[in-house]
Write a structure and sequence with these properties.
Blueprint: E1 2-9, E2 18-22, E3 27-30, H1 32-35, E4 43-53, E5 56-66, H2 79-94, E6 100-107, E7 110-120, E8 126-127, H3 144-150
Antiparallel strand pairs: 1-2, 1-4, 2-3, 4-5, 6-7, 7-8
């Protein structure tokens, strides 16, 4: 199965597995050593185990390899720009300038969608997801907070 990683989460306190959410909204458990090799926006060929517990299905990634692009137009063409914008957002979140956000980039038919940080911090932290309803806007210039982070 080929997935595109939308978000990754390290194991929660007292837990062994981290979480990978795909661009299609699927969720998989993953061991931390495998999680470290994944990048948000990356496409990966995975194998996984499926287990039932208390009426719920849990999926755990057992093998992961970078996916080969089926055709050049299938993969986004601006990887360095995606990595740059992702790094800016992660830096702003780490610096406490914003709690999180959803990034949607489209260019010449290629699309990149990712969730960063948290959608709520009070009363409890809730991770941002690609399906979180958010105000959508078109930016014609970089926000001053992000310009300072890029400098």
């Amino acid at each position: 199965m080929i997935i595109q990683v939308a978000e990754t989460h390290p194991p929660k306190a007292g837990k062994k597995l981290g979480t990978v959410k795909t661009a299609t909204g699927e969720s998989f458990g993953i061991w931390p050593d495998k999680l470290a090799s994944l990048q948000v926006g990356g496409r990966y060929q995975i194998e996984f185990d499926e287990n039932e517990f208390n009426g719920r299905t849990y999926r755990k990634i057992t093998k992961v390899h970078p996916a080969e692009a089926a055709e050049p137009s299938a993969a986004p063409t601006c990887d360095s720009e995606q990595q740059f914008v992702s790094a800016l957002l992660n830096g702003a979140i780490a610096a406490g300038k914003l709690p999180g956000g959803v990034l949607c980039l489209e260019h010449h038919g290629a699309a990149y969608h990712a969730a960063f940080g948290d959608r709520a911090v009070v009363p409890a932290r809730e991770p941002m997801t690609p399906t979180t309803a958010a105000l959508v806007s078109e930016a014609k210039r970089v926000a001053p907070e992000l310009e300072a982070t890029a400098a």
